[in-house]
Amino acid sequence: MSQQSYPSPLPGGGTAGELALTFDRARPLRLLIVPALFDEANRLRRLTVEVMRRLDAAGIDSALPDLPGCNESLQPLDAQTVATWRAAMAAAAAWFGATHVLALRGGAALVPPGLPGWHYAPAKGSAILRQMLRARIVAAREAGVNESQDELLALGLVEGLELSGHRLGPGLLADLRDLAPEPGDRITTIDQDMLGGAGLWLRAEPDESREQADALAAILAIGMKPAA
Amino acid sequence: MASNTDLLLRRILTDVLGLKPGQADRFTADTGLFGHLPELDSMAVAGLLTEMEDRLDIVIEDDEVDGELLESFGSLLTFAEGKRAQA
User: Fold this and answer.
1) Domain with B32 in it: what CATH number?
2) Burial class (CB within 10 angstroms; exposed 0-12, middle 13-18, buried 19+) of A226
3) How many residue contacts between A and B have a Cβ separation below 8 Å?
4) Are residues A102 and A18 located together in one domain of the fold?
5) A75 and A89 part of one domain
6) Which is more confidently placed, B62 or A117?
């Protein structure tokens, strides 16, 4: 495993380096992994990296790029929109020479066009946003403050909004409301049932599952192997 | 006999809170939730409600979420069964 930097386009022109975790031995089968969004990315990170380790052992290279504004990124999150994230994932795919793509949860709507691959448990932006709004409302209520989803969103679409420690700009909030996975002809959906057990993105505390990592890696490795 | 909602709710709590197998089977109506289970913070409450909406096919309004709702397994189950009866 190594850490590399990929050139992610900036909205005003030029590029900025963003981190990508890679298993790269210049092999022909190359999987780009589009991360899940916000807290779900953290909760799924161990599963994701465990899958990458298994693919490495199976002779498949993989890259897990940061979304600009997330994880190790130096870019401000509140300047990001779905367009900047899509541009970053397209740039990462080109830089890595990806032959296939795996998108996790909300990342399914950010997949670069044209690549064959998989959506794992794809989620709509509106569902992810609803949950984050709700977490804020529950926390505020404990502090004796009443907030509602409609009021928060209306305010956020003008001023931006802090949700679960993430400072989201008006553009990204507006985008998230309508964001939906785009199943292409060459994309297969992997439902949680296929891995067994409950989705790790649901967990209040990050957890891991060897069985789920084995199952997901097997689906990917079998799907990526060229027909004999 | 336990209702279908009862079983689903135990399953959802297990999945969201990462409870040990069998732990939720031992919940009674009086088992305390919010303030009793360390895993159940505000983020987990949000996840729990969203999963309940998905799997029980109900809609939970903001103003229905208060301390009493999550006080015990019994109060949450009564709420969920009432919601499903309306649906």
Assistant:
1) 1.10.1200.10
2) exposed
3) 57
4) yes
5) yes
6) A117
Res A227: pLDDT: 65
Number of structural domains found in chain B: 1
Q: CB of A1 within 8 A of CB of A55?
A: no
HEC string of A25-47?
CCCCCEEEEECCCCHHHHHHHHH
Mean pLDDT of chain B: 90
- A176 and A71, same structural domain? no
Suggest the residue from B33, B36, B50, B52 to mutate for an interface test with chain A (most A CBs closer than 10 A).
B50
Longest CA span, chain B: 32
Q: What is the ipTM of this complex?
A: 0.82
Three-class SS state of A9: strand
Parallel, antiparallel, or unpaired for β A161-163 and A166-168?
antiparallel
Q: How far apart are CA B16 and CA A214, in angstroms?
A: 22
User: Which residues of B fall within a CB distance of 8 Å from A142?
Assistant: 42
The answer to whether B18 contacts A131, with C-beta atoms less than 8 Å apart, is no
Instruction: Report CB contact under 8 Å: A138, B47.
Output: no
To the nearest whole percent, how much of chain A has pLDDT over 90? 86
Number of folded domains that form chain A: 2
- Verify that A150 and A83 share a domain, yes or no: no
The domain containing residue B14 runs over which residues? 4-86
Q: Give the angle subtended at the CA of A7 by the CAs of A167 and A217, to the nearest 5°.
A: 80
| Contact of B51 with B16, CB cutoff 8 Å | yes
Domain boundaries, position A96: 2-123+181-224
Strand ranges inside A139-180, DSSP E: 161-163, 166-168
Rounded Cα gap, residues B74 and B29, in angstroms = 4
CATH code at position A79:
3.40.50.1820
The C-alpha atoms of residue B47 and residue A97 are separated, in whole angstroms, by 36
Residues A101, A196, single domain; the answer is yes
